[in-house]
Amino acid sequence: MTTALAKQETAAAAPVAPQASSPYAARIDHVSKSFGRPGPGQQLVLDDVSIDVAPGEFVTLLGASGCGKSTLLNLVAGLDEPSAGAIDVPGGRPALMFQEHALFPWLTAGKNIELALKLRGVAKADRRPEAERLLELVRLKGAYGKRVHELSGGMRQRVALARALAQDSQLLLMDEPFAALDAITRDVLHEELTRIWSQTSVSVLFVTHNVREAVRLAQRVVLLSSRPGRIAREWQIGLPQPRRIEDAAVAELSVEITEQLRGEIRRHGQH
Amino acid sequence: MASTDTTRATGDTEPTGPGGGTEAADGTGTATVAAGTVSTATRKAGADGPAESLAGLEAGLDALDSAPARERVGLGRILLAKVVPPLVAIALVVTVWQLAAASDLKPDYVLPGPLDVADSVRTMWLEGTLLDYIWTSISRGALGFVVSVAIGTPLGLLVARVKVVRAAIGPILSGLQSLPSVAWVPAAIIWFGLTDATIYAVVLLGAVPSIANGLVSGVDQIPPLHLRAGRTLGARGFNSVRHVLLPAALPGYLAGLKQGWAFSWRSLMAAELIASSPDLGTGLGQLMENFRVNSDMSGVLATIILILIVGIGIDLLFFSPLERRVLRSRGLLVRS
Hints:
Chain A has 271 residues and is of the alpha/beta class. Chain A contains eight helices and nine strands.
């Protein structure tokens, strides 16, 4: 892998057993999820979903409201149990980024990252340099001592990304992490995420309802239908990175995917 | 289709490869716009390629989006805004009081003037006993408060986090807050006699519920997202309490502590007033009772004012700054 160098760097700080032998970073194997007691009131949210995320792969999950994409992410994160099927994440607990930054307001940006390092078991002396390295990775070199409320929305999400990376997980789950940002900042963070993903060996499973964002970022786009969530279609995106959201090729593919997505949504109006 | 590896390798460094031409053009385009509005760093970066240009763009965004540094408020303005109004209010009250006393609405032994009261305080000061009275009460209040914190904190955590405990004693705990702690004095005297134990029992029964309840409401107000974030970071058990739960609940807990102090102080005065005996050291409560027995109204009023000053003073010196600091560091307090 061309990313071996970056990987060595992160591995040095963590005594994690190498997981390189596994053919996938996450395997979602015929997973179904329903809420409520069995019976007529039971709601099927996910129906027989299978997705393999290859090591180092960037996959976006795309779908309208009610497709269960956040539920699926919670299942992969281990915050909830599937009703049927199995989920395997060989690299250990995945890192998770939310739409809200979810940084702890009682800690500085740097200490937020150090807490993640501490909970991962990094020795005290190594935490500060590692936190500063991660802040530099998201280009927030001077933000170590800043409180969360002193940072802009884009900066907060970058600190949150650095904190997620601090978990040194092989899998990064992102739940619409840029949805609340303005268009300019979102565009910049797309570039940052692409850059950081290309510099590390992390696999990304990225949930969004924004078709262009999905095409802009991913190597593979998985479209989920709604109620219950099923895999409707997949696209391999062969366009080279770095892409731009306004690229003609991105736009063209987005039109195609949007058509399909609208078709999925329309089905719910026909009863 | 380019393979994944080459795509990722060229991702950041060179604007060559397929689509590189348009990429470079786009990059410069962005840089020019950004340079015009943001900084010279961006203009320089424009020549170095998209990666540098992105860094510059981001630096510009960060600078634009961050809140501008607040100007320092001068000491004079703080004095004018925060200190002068209460002083004026106090002066007004004292003036009205003095006028009422001077106009002889009531005889002096019922309504002494401010000067008589000041004279009582001065006499106690000259006798050298004033600080002893105050210290006796403050040390009792402080000890009672510390013990209340030691009991109320684990109790609050239990009620907040264990469903059965909450169902069992949650309502009783909040109900106890509305029970005036004076109500405990007769019971405590029967249990412990006229001893220090009586006084501390009343203080604890007054302060523990409000400290525990403060912590419970602090925990209840934690955004669920923070707990979820803690779990994804791997915080479990003790780590979760130590690094997520307690710091997140701190604002509510502090409010509880502040109220707990007020309750300790109030309960202490009630206890001292009723359970007064020569065997116990003389605190402000007993002092007031002694003045009442001697029908010394200016002494009674002087003691009331002392009790008020101590209560307000500890809040102003200790709890309020602590609370403000915590809220401000979290961006929860907007400087007016």
